[in-house]
């Protein structure tokens, strides 16, 4: 077991820093194993601190101290003390500024946790969010200490010809022994989590951008030489994001240089360090033959996200890490808007809600549930969660819904105006919205402090004589850890009514004639009356998914089929189709439990037949309408999850549709099957998505004709979208060429790490027999590396998070396998290890046999000696 239980940090205990660092000069003598860091901190007492102590406490981990001085005078061992995480200097001046100078040494090569300064292949790079800077040198490593940084890097010119840091380059030169130096200065004060350093053998792809005020910004993307030809899309995405932020928020970039560096080893997607973004290669590199359409969209979205952080995260940052959603929820909302504007608002909204309901709602229903502004944590890295990011974005979206687009923009303008250059709180963000619009949002603030997914229970009654629809909505929220009782939230509910012919129904409410409305739900139960309705309408509720809630509303299959055909709200039309299939699947599951023969309701066949024969303006949207609910989403709707029945029933629906509509699927496939490699306009992407959706259904036939069609697409594809689509259905079928196709794909792409990640993930997520044996074999594959986060996510992550039918096998081997890998990763990379543990967190949702087996592995993890804080927190909370 652990030597000591890690301490919990509480929001209620926040106090301002006792000292401030006005400026820091950093000198790095870079080396893969022996980097020396000299820091010169100009400090002073914080006038806002009420603490009476005179000691200065700096944070630092895994640092070798060489020397320390106060105002140029060396300190002796009696002047300071060092423990595992802090350095305490007994006495420092209280009435004037002073300078602390520290020399220390670090070993980047040994840093497999990828926090602080570490080695990625032959490149040195940093990751300082949330608390990585303390692994570089002793500092006040907290986001409310804003400091101006000047950084000088010196290194061997052959090994590290490119030396980068934040801000503007202010000097460079040569040194003896084939060494050189470069100095950088950031004119903006920033917290140390935004510090960045990169050194390596890199090529630069350059461009420029002219801002709305006419300033010319140099844009530079740094990659390894063999990746230079995969940067064009990332560069264009950056320029698109810069222009969009000016047009949509009036925000202009503030430095003369914007740099992006792509690295192979990275725990996250990317990092918004001021002026020097460090990216996982997955979200920079793209070429039509190596990246799918989804990869292209994700790259643009993540490039946008990190760029938008320049204001919503950098210019205005977090006071403390409990406020993480202040920057992340807001910026996710901004990147969602951006991607929707650049692609399809309908498709983007559905994709975001689908991910939210499948994964974040599951987090809300688990022992790991927490508000978007948590009250406590043991390891802050564990709160980079779907709740903080995706649910945080939904809370921001609700503010826009309540205030309107114009009112929301006014609130954003005031927020940036008030707090530029400050470290602030979620409360400050809501305050700005209130002040700019003259509204009161005290009840809405509960979204920040209350965990769980609310449930809206809806009942309706139509009074034909009075021509009125009476609508009653009750809101409730299940208990979550430390929050058994929930207060009512302020929930915006957008709705419309449909007439019998499918057209919008006009109604009168509060004396006004309307065709749609946003209701303000603020009480545990509220009723609404809609007048002047000559016939009973069909209710289209929660349009655009106007709030992150579960909707409990009885619907007949006929009513859902009607909405699937007629609803003008793109989200609710898709949702009607999803719920139609959900109801049918759960009916089939009941038949399975009762050992009854399975039959597919004709309404589903007819609905899909109509869809396949309809003209569509947005083919990507049409492809989404044809997609069945995900098995993980279906699991979330069950009190006791039956993974085998879910899989069986869903596959039955898909296979039955494939046989019933084979001609339609073939026809639509052939209409849209063409070689448009290199084309990424909406029409080309839509054609690929629609034809590959049809291919997925046709693969269910397991016929010689379908095998021939799929193999032809695999062998003739000139773009990764079509090749991956074909290979994915081959891997999930009995296709006789499966082994040869997998081998051919590997031989073709073995030098492209990101493509081989896809190869691993496809096999790990296959629902065909013997997948677990395949995963075990792939763990020994020469291309698998536990020290590479992308590869770990592709194999271990895909198996445990995207393959429920095999991960949850009754013998518990999947659980034991995951626990083995978590414990192996615990000493290598605690962040990645803790994220893997979450697959066991919902153990209470399964049958008693699986519960016992999952719990055993969680207990095994918790009882392991030298367990990291990251893993301990997730495993212990899962068991609590």
TrEMBL record:
**Domain Peptidase M1 alanyl aminopeptidase Ig-like fold: start-end pairs:** 452-553
Annotated Peptidase M1 membrane alanine aminopeptidase domain ranges read 234-447
The GO annotation for biological process reads: proteolysis
Q: Which NCBIfam families match?
A: pepN_proteo
Query: What is the protein name given in its UniProt record?
Result: Aminopeptidase N
Q: Where is the Aminopeptidase N-like N-terminal domain?
A: 77-194
Q: Which cofactor does it need?
A: Zn(2+)
Q: Which family does it belong to?
A: Belongs to the peptidase M1 family.
Q: Where is the Peptidase M1 alanyl aminopeptidase C-terminal domain?
A: 558-880
Q: What is the lineage of its organism?
A: Bacteria, Pseudomonadati, Pseudomonadota, Gammaproteobacteria, Methylococcales
Q: Does the keyword Protease apply?
A: yes
């Amino acid at each position: 077991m652990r030597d000591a239980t890690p301490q919990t940090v509480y929001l209620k205990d926040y106090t301002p820093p006792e000292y401030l660092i006005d400026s820091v000069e950093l000198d790095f003598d870079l080396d893969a194993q022996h980097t020396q860091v000299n820091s010169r901190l100009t400090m002073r007492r914080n006038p806002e601190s009420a603490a009476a102590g005179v000691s200065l406490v700096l944070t630092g981990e895994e640092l070798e101290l060489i020397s320390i001085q106060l105002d140029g005078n060396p300190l002796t061992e009696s002047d300071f003390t060092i423990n595992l995480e802090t350095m305490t200097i007994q006495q420092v001046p209280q009435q004037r500024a002073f300078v602390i100078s520290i020399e220390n040494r670090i070993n980047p090569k040994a840093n497999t946790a990828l926090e602080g300064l570490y080695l990625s292949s032959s490149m040195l790079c940093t990751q300082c969010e949330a608390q990585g800077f303390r692994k570089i040198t002793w500092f006040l490593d907290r986001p409310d200490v804003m400091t101006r940084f000047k950084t000088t890097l010196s290194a061997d010119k052959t090994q590290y010809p490119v030396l980068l840091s934040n801000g503007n380059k202010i000097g460079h030169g040569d040194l003896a022994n084939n060494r050189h130096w470069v100095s950088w200065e950031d004119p903006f004060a920033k917290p140390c989590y935004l510090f960045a350093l990169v050194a390596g053998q890199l090529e630069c792809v350059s461009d420029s951008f002219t801002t709305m005020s006419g300033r010319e910004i140099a844009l530079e993307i740094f990659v390894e030489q063999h990746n230079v030809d995969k940067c064009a899309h990332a560069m264009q995405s950056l320029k698109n994001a810069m222009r969009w932020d000016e047009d949509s928020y009036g925000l202009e970039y503030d430095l003369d240089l914007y740099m992006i560096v792509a690295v192979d080893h990275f725990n996250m997607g990317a990092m918004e360090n001021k002026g020097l973004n460090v990216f996982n290669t997955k979200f920079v590199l793209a070429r039509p033959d190596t990246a799918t359409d989804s990869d292209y969209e994700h790259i643009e979205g993540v490039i946008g996200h990190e760029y938008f952080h320049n204001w919503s995260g950098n210019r205005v940052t977090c006071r403390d890490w409990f406020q993480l959603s202040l920057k992340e929820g807001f910026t996710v909302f901004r990147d969602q808007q951006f991607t929707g504007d650049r692609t399809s608002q309908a498709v983007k909204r559905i994709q975001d809600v689908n991910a939210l309901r499948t994964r974040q709602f599951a987090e809300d229903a688990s022992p790991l549930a927490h508000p978007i502004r948590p009250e406590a944590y043991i390891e802050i890295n564990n709160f980079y969660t779907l709740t903080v990011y995706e649910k945080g974005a939904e809370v921001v979206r609700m503010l826009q819904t309540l205030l309107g687009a114009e009112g929301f923009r006014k609130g954003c303008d005031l927020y940036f105006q008030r707090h530029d250059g400050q470290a602030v709180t979620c409360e400050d963000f809501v305050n700005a919205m209130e002040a700019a619009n003259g509204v009161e949002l005290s009840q809405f603030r509960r979204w920040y402090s209350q965990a769980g997914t609310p449930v809206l229970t809806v009942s309706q009654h139509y009074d034909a004589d009075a021509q009125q629809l009476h609508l009653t909505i009750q809101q409730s929220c299940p208990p979550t850890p430390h929050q058994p009782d929930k207060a009512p939230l302020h929930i915006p509910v957008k709705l419309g009514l449909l007439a019998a012919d499918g057209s919008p129904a006009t109604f009168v409410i509060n004396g006004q004639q309307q065709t749609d409305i946003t209701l303000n739900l603020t009480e545990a139960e509220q009723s609404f009356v809609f007048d002047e309705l000559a016939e009973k309408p069909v209710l289209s509720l929660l349009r655009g998914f106007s709030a992150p809630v579960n909707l409990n509303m009885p619907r007949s299959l006929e009513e859902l089929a009607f909405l699937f055909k007629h609803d003008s709200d793109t989200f609710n039309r898709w949702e009607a189709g999803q719920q139609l299939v959900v109801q049918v699947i759960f009916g089939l599951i009941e038949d399975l439990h009762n050992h009854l023969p399975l039959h597919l309701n004709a309404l589903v066949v007819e609905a899909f037949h109509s869809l396949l024969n309809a003209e569509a303006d947005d083919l990507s949207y049409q492809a989404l309408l044809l997609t069945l609910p995900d098995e993980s989403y279906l699991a979330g709707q069950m009190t006791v999850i039956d993974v085998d029945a879910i899989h069986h029933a869903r596959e039955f629906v898909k296979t039955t549709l494939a046989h019933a509509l084979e001609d339609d699927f073939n026809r639509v496939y052939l209409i849209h099957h063409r070689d448009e490699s290199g084309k990424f306009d909406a029409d080309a992407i839509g054609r690929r998505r629609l034809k590959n959706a049809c291919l997925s259904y046709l693969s269910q036939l397991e016929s010689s004709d379908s095998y021939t069609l799929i193999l032809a697409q695999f062998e003739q594809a000139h773009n990764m979208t079509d090749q991956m689509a074909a290979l994915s259905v081959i891997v999930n079928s009995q296709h006789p060429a499966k082994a040869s196709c997998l081998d051919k794909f590997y031989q073709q792409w073995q030098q492209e790490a990101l493509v081989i990640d896809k190869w691993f993930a496809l096999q790990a997520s296959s629902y065909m027999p013997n997948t677990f044996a395949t995963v075990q074999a792939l763990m020994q594959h020469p291309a698998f590396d536990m020290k590479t986060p992308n590869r770990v996510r592709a194999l271990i992550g895909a198996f445990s998070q995207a393959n429920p039918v095999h991960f949850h096998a009754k013998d518990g081997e999947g659980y034991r396998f995951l626990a083995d890998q978590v414990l192996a990763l615990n000493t290598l990379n605690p962040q990645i290890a803790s994220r893997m543990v979450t697959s066991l967190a919902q153990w209470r949702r399964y049958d008693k046999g699986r519960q016992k087996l999952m719990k055993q592995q969680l207990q095994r993890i918790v009882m392991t000696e030298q367990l990291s804080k990251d893993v301990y927190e997730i495993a212990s909370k899962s068991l609590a």
